[in-house]
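Could you join me in thinking about how sequence relates to backbone shape in a protein? To get us started, please write out a protein record for me. Would you write everything just below, so we can both look at the same thing?
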Amino acid sequence: MTTPHPTLYTANDHDWLVAAHGRLYAAENCFDASFPVVVDSVLRSFEADHDPACERGWILRDGARRLGSIFCVREDDSTARLRLFLLEPEARGSGQGRRLLETCMGFARDHGYRRMVLGTHESHRAACALYARNGFACTRSTPITNYGQALVEQVWERAL
């Protein structure tokens, strides 16, 4: 693998991103087919309504190969929301997750956001550890049933 780099998301990445989320979350978390439907809806909304002046998505690429994603969307005037953070297994443990997270947080800071929030599940232990190492704190944990699984939904936040 050469050194992967983040590139801006385009609608050409849509189908891959939906399929990658569906495949990985089914294999690693036993999520049902409702999960990629949600990812598709999030992407359609982003493509139709995002403000490129303050919202971005990135795809981690190694040449033509896609290895991950992360999005920064507006929650409110001072808060950015991190969404659709994904790394293919072969890109994990190489610092690429940290690199994507830094890209997203740097964009948010540079565009005037003072806080970043994200939602995840307690079962995503590696991602939660990455968030904690980068100044995020878990501010809420709620047991839920979603995507065919009993989960603990979490909200993480940090000042920028």
